[in-house]
Amino acid sequence: MSEVKLFGAWFSPYVKRVEMSLNLKGVEYEYIEEDLKNKSPLFLQYNPITKLVPALVHNGKPIFESSVILEYIDETWEGPSIFPKDPFDRAMSRFWAKFVEDKCSDLLWKACWSAGEEREKAAKEAEEGLTILENEIKDKKFFGGENIGLVDLVANYIALWNPILQDVVGFHVLTQDKFPNISKWADEFCNDSFVEKYMPEKEKVRLWLKRAVETGSLY
Amino acid sequence: MATSGVKLLGAKQSPFVTRVMMALEMKSIDYELVVMNPHLKPELLSKTNPVHKKIPVLIHGERAICESLIIVQYIDDAWTNGPSILPPHPYDRATARFWAAFVDDKLVPLLGQLREAEGEEAKELVIKKLSEAFMRLEEAFINCSKGKAFFGGDSVGYLDIALGSFVGLIRVVEMMNETKLLDETKTSRLAGWAERLYSDSLVKDVLMDPQLLLVQLQKFLATMPKAASE
Predict the structure, then answer these.
(1) What is the ipTM of this complex?
(2) Which burial class, exposed, middle or buried, applies to A215 when counting CB atoms under 10 A from its CB (0-12, 13-18, 19+)?
(3) Average pLDDT, chain A
(4) Distance between CA atoms of B130 and B20, rounded to whole angstroms?
(5) Which end of chain B has fewer surrounding CB within 10 Å, N or C?
(6) CB A156 within 8 A of CB A198
(7) For the residues A138-156, what does the mean pLDDT come to?
(8) Considering only CB atoms, which chain B residues are within 8 Å of A67?
C-alpha cells in the first residue's frame, strides 16, 4: 500500500501541474497546503534544500522540482502517459517543456513584475519565444496532440495565471491579436473538463496577484 | 538500433558537448564529430537547431535533438544495448535528475558569473557561492554513490556525466582564480571522484586535460563577445 503526500500551495502553477499528473494516473494522495511564510517542520524535514513547493513524498522518500516529479510520476504509476513513449518524441516533449518555461513563462512573469528598460527587454524576449511557440501549436488542439501531454501541463501558467497577471499590472504581452493560436490553446486547455477540476479559481488568483502587486510579496 | 548516421555538432571544449560525447562513448556508438563554433553562426546549426542555434546538436538519421541533458536521455532511451545511463529505479532517477538540474541551474551560471565578476571582492563573493554549491554536491555524492566509485554506483551514470563534463572547466577556473573548488580538504569525496572519472575507461578519452582546455578555451572565448554557455 503506497503512501503519497503532496506538499503544495494553492496558487502555484508548479503544484497544479503535479496535481493534474497524479490525478491523470488515478493516484491517491494526501494534499498538504503549506503556508510558505511559515513552513511546517514536517515540510522542512523533507525539503531542507529547495524549501519550495511542490514536494512529493512517496513512501517517506521526498522528490523535488516539478519537472523531476512529473518524470517520476510517469515512471512510477500506470495510466495515461504524460511523456510520449517514442524516444525522439520524448526528447521533443522535454525540449518544448523547457522552452515554454525558460523562453516564455519566465519571461512573461518577469515582464509583468519589472519596469522600464528591464520590462521592455523581457517583453521583447517573451515575444520572440511566444512567436516560436505560436508556430508549434498551430494545427494542433493541444501540444500533446489530441490529448493533453507534458508540454500542456508545463504551459499551464500561460493558460491561466499569465492573462490574469497581465490584467492586474496593466501590461499585455500575450494578446489574442498577436498570438491567436496560443490564445485558442489556452481556452481549450482551461475549459477542458479534466483540467478545470485542478485549476485554481480565476477570481481567487486575481485577488492573490492584486495583493502581491500591492504588497510586493507573493505570500 | 542502427548506429549509422550519427553526427554530433559541437566543439569538444564545450562541457555541454562533452556530456553527449560521454554518453555516446558509454554506449559504444559510432559518430562523427562535426566541429562547429556557434558564435561564427554556421548555417548547418541554424538548420538543425533553429530555435536556439547552439551546440550540441545530435543528428540521428533524419532527426535533430538539442539541449545536452535531453540528448543524453535520448541516447539512453534510443540505444538500449550497452550500459544504462540513468539508474534503474525511479527514485534514483529522480535524484539524478534533481542534481543534474542543480548543476545546470545553480553551478553553471556561477561559473559564468565568476568570469564576468570585476574586482577581488566581487570574485570572492562568487567563489563563496561556488564553494557552497560544491558542498551540496559533496553531500549528493555521498547519498547517490552509496560508498561506490561514482554517482551512478560502480560505473559512470547520468549525474557523473552532468557534473563530470564540467570538471575540466572547473579546474581551469581554479587555475585562473588561484583558488580550489574541488579539493581534498573541503570536498574530499568529489576530489576522489574526479580523479576516478579521468581514469575511467569508458569516458576518459573525451574528457579534456585542464591545461589543454585552458589554452583552447581562451582561443574559443576570443571569438565571442560575452559568456559562453548553452
Answers:
(1) 0.93
(2) exposed
(3) 93
(4) 24
(5) N
(6) no
(7) 95
(8) 97, 101
